[in-house]
Each structure stands twice: as structure tokens, then as C-alpha cells.
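Customer ticket, subject: "Can you confirm the structure for BREX system Lon protease-like protein BrxL?"

Message body: Hello, I'm evaluating your service for our small team and ran a test protein. I'd like someone to confirm that this is what the system normally returns, since I don't have a reference to compare against.
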Amino acid sequence: MELDDLDRKAAEAFPGHIVRKDLVRRFRGQFPVPTYVVEFMLGRYCASTVPEEIEEGLQMVQSQLSDRTVRAGEEELFKSKARDRGSVRIIDIITARLDAKTDSYLATLPSLRLNDVRISDKIVLDHERMLTGGFYAEIELGYDASIAQEKGGRPFEVLSLREIQLSTRDILEKIAAGRGQLTTREWKDFLLRSIGLEPAALSTRAQDATLLRMIPFVERNYNLIELGPRGTGKSHLFQQVSPYAHLVSGGKATVARMFVNMANGQRGLVCQYDVVCFDEVSGISFDQKDGVNIMKGYMESGEFSRGRESIRAEGSIVMVGNFDVDVQHQQRVGHLFGPMPPEMRNDTAFMDRIHCYLPGWDVPKISKELFTDRFGLVSDVLAECFSGLRSQSRVNVLQGRVHFGGALSGRDQNAVNKTVSGLLKLLYPDPTVAVPDDDLEWAVRLALEVRRRVKEQQKRIGSAEFRNTQFSYVIGLDGVEKFVSTPELQSEDSIGSDPLPAGQVWAISPGGQDESTGLFRIEVTESPGGGVRILNQSPPGPFRESARIAEQNLYARSRELVGERNPREHEFALQLRSFDAAKSGEQLGVGVLVGLCSALLGKPLKGGLVIAGGITLGGSIEPIHNPIDVIELAMEKGANAVLVPVSSRRALIDLSDDVATKVQVLFYADAPDALRKALHD
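Agent reply: Thanks for trying us out. I re-ran your input and got the following:
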């Protein structure tokens, strides 16, 4: 195979730590062990770019895996070898338990179907993970014939073991130094190759989604969910690539196994592993009624209680599952948490603890074209680097450089911070390296999108507290406020036929001397308090003035507009989004006032409706100087009805027949009339 530029650079940057990924596939299916075990052997004997050395190493790997892995039906042969020779070496997953009757530990070796193998206390205490899910190791298994003759004797004993681990303590420093020799683009490609995928075969969205899958490995207490089509390799990373991850397959998840066993104090999976992944999450259920509540508490704080004692753990929680329909249909029939178990499906408190909803539909189905034949890091080295990065944080990179919009709650900001920190750790394993604005913005946009996807589903379930999902950010002190949407939602810049949530209004500004007509979306949320607060970082002057006048009109004419409700007892958070070149928000007073009333009444406006017109402090409606331009823009943006001041009626005689047949023009005399005609029936 001809080496490409990245292969040559990687061989120079990471000598002894790379392996050709097609070699791994040569052994896949031959031996009953995960990928990282095969790569451990390849990394030991084939970490070279010289074809002759690789071929020689392959023969060694073939020989050792053949001699030490137990295929189905060979169990008795290996036991016989142990008896004849006194000991035998095998590669197997080892678990252990405490036998209270004999006050000793017993090991289980599933490939030999042995569950009563003697093992010394020291070996168990040196490798505590064998008491939870177990791990793969090279094991020297001894046989004592004299014990075999005793009644109830246990002749097999673990004499020694070596965890499947190639890396050394300083591996992270070595990899961080090698990363400095690659560009960011090259390093992203190399990371993807290291988990066996060829970046050239993946779209940018698929590459980003795959990098997001890696965050739970590098970020403590990170909660990720991925739902999407079958066959996209959702559980592969958590099952095959790292010994620090544990896959819980569908079925019951016991509180004792996950968190702590109250009977013996044994710590559970979240204490023992960096990542605990629930596969086929729709089938998961807990053995105790409060299991989901314990899980929610852990996902929130990283702690759970055992009696009076509070135990802290750092294991990240990942949930993966399948859609039976495509994402668009799923959104039409419900929300994107639909495939979750019933006790989690509509629980907005559970959803609020999810830091990242990964778009599984952006990842292609696994096919041989996606696998790489190039060099990547040995999985064990990669896993060790990931584990080492967990003790670091990159949140400080955001301070003073990125400012988030007012729509983000405390939990939103925490989720976004953790995602950004994880992405930056993946990109820059050396914490002393400065992060350029481009890479920082890439991480921020991705983090806002995957968190907003969670908020959009909460909003669909109907909780008023999650109404405002318009996530935005500003990079730098004088940067422009940018909004981030989730691509699977309908086009953000066109007026859909569905009613917007209460408080949201499409409005058109007629523009002025220096500005043409423009479409805006006004978004209002209300809560107990007082006053109107604009969430935009630096709102334009004309819009600020429109908001001030709308607020005064609401107070002055509250009985006509909102009946018995007292607007002075409510705080309104106001946000303006522009969808055209027009930015000032000139003459949007009626739209703002209708938005305030809609939020206070909790009633949405008609779908496909757009409002035009300004208002004075005295309550009179300002005329529009170019109503035909306003109606034409509304039609272009997909509106089916436009609300305009009645003073525009004569000017609209010249409206073309084509536009007049596509858009319904509604006239209003004053603000209460506009509100009545705008509200959804």
C-alpha cells in the first residue's frame, strides 16, 4: 500500500504507536475478542511502516491469538493442556466475586466456562475492575492436581495476569507533542482513522457527529444520547475501541450494578468505567421504582447516595437507540425522544440533564467503503489518551472570548461548556496550545446545536419554561450575534404554515431611507416579575424604541388587550431575529405589542401570518409608506396572510393579481383589532 502524506506525517509524529487499520479487519471474526485486544497485539508486533516488519509481526499475532484464544468447543482442550503442563496462557475477559462461604475471591473465565477459579486477594485488589464488568487480560491459568482430588476442590487458579494495555503513563504527553506536527484538519482526519473510519468517505456532518461520539471518553460526567437509523455503528466505539467503556445491552439495569450494591458496598459501573453506554435504550428498565430518579440525580451532580453516605463518580452516561421511522416523520408524529423507555420519554427533567443529543441520522450506515486502510493510533493508546484528558478542562478558553445569548439557562450553559471543553480536548490534547477563533467557533456552534436539539423536544412536549430555544453567541467584544439552529427543523428563514408558539411573531419592517423591507421574528417569553428585557446583546435603536412604545401601550390599554391580567406583574424577555439585510427593526411596534399580549395570554398566533405596522405612544397606528413591497416580501417568504394598517387599503389597489391571489391581506384599525385578528382560533 502506498503511504499518503498523513500516513508519513503520523509515522514521524507517533513512532511505535500507530497501526495499519486494515490489518485489524484481517483478524475480525477469526477470534472471539474485541477490536482493541487485536490492536493491542498488532501494536506490540506491527507498529511499523516497513512491509517486511509488518508481515513478520502479523505471523506472531496470528500465532499468539491462535494459541491463546479459546474458540467455541475448545474449552476442554485448554483445560487438558493446563492439567498436563501445570499451566496454560489464555486471552479472556476476567471477572471476580467474593465467595462469602470460603472468605476468598473466585474468578470467572467465560471462554473456558469456569466460574470457580481461585485468585489471590492481591491480584483482585490491584485490578478492581474485575469485580464489576471485568476486562480482557493475558492470563496464566494454573492447575493443581492435589486440590482436584479434595472434595469440592477448586484446582484452577489465576497465577498472574496482564491487562491488555500497551500505553505508558506519559503517553498523553507523547501524543500531544506529536499532535503539534499536524494541522487541525490532519489531526481530525487522523482521529477518525484511529477508530477505523476513512474521513474522505464521510460528509462534514458525519465527521462532526463521529467526533461528538468521542466526547464522553474525554469529559467527566458527560450525558449523551444518540438516536437514529439502524446500522450506523452507534455502539461500536463503546464496545470495541476502549477498555474504559462498558456496554449495557438491552434489558434490566440494576441499581446495584450501575451505582452501588447496598449489601456489600461494592461500587458500580459508573465508578469503575469512564463511559457506561446503554445499547438499545428503548428496552432498558431499572429493577427499582426509583432507579430513574437515582439516574437523574447522578446525571445532574455526579453523585448518588448509599444510605447516609454520598458517593461521587465520574463515569459518563451514553444512551443509543434506533428510530423506526425517519427524523422528519418522527418530528411530525411526536418528538425526537419518542424511542426512549416510557419512564423517560416525556420527562423534561430527565431531558434537561442531557448535554448532547447527537444527530444519528447524519451518520451513514456502516459499509466497507467507510473503513480505512490507512494508519491510525493503536486503540489502546487512543483510549489511554482519552482517559488522561478527563482530568483536564478547556472551559477557561471560553472566558472573555465567547458570550452566549439570553436564551441559555444555567443548565444549557453548563451543557454547552462541557461539549466545547470535550471538543477542544480532542482537537488540542496539549492544554498550553492557543485555540484559534475558527476552531473555537466550530466547537461553540456544534455544542449549541446539540443542546438546542434537547430544548426543542422539551418545547414540543409543551413545557412553558422551555419556550425560548433561540440559542445565540457572540465571539469577541464587538462581534455580531449569531444564532444556531438545528438543521432538521424546517427552514429558519421562511414562514411556515404551523402556528408559532405563544409569544412568537413574524413581522415585516417597511424599512426607511437607508434600508429596504426586511423580515424579522420577534420572540417573547414571560415570567413573574416586571418590565421588558431585550435579550439581544446590542439591540438596534429603532427596535429598542418600538419595544419601549409597545410596553407603554400594553400598560395603558391592558384591559382592552389582555383583560384581567396585570402586565406589570410579569417580566417579558424579548428577542429580535433578522432574516434579511435589514437589521434596524424600524416600525415593528404592533408586532412587538401583539407578541407581548400573545405571551401573556399564552395563546399562539395564526400560522403563516406576518404583521406590519408601527404604533405611537398615544396608541395610533403609523401608516406604511410602501405596503406593496411589504405584501410582496411576505409572499416571497412563504406567508399566507399579512396584517397591515387599514390606512394602506387605497395604496394596495395596484397590488398584482398574482400576489393578491396567493396572500390574504387583513386590515386592522388599532392594536386590539390587530390582536383579535392575529390570535389563533
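A couple of notes from the result: The mean pLDDT is 87. DSSP finds 26 helices and 28 strands in the chain. Feel free to reply with more questions.
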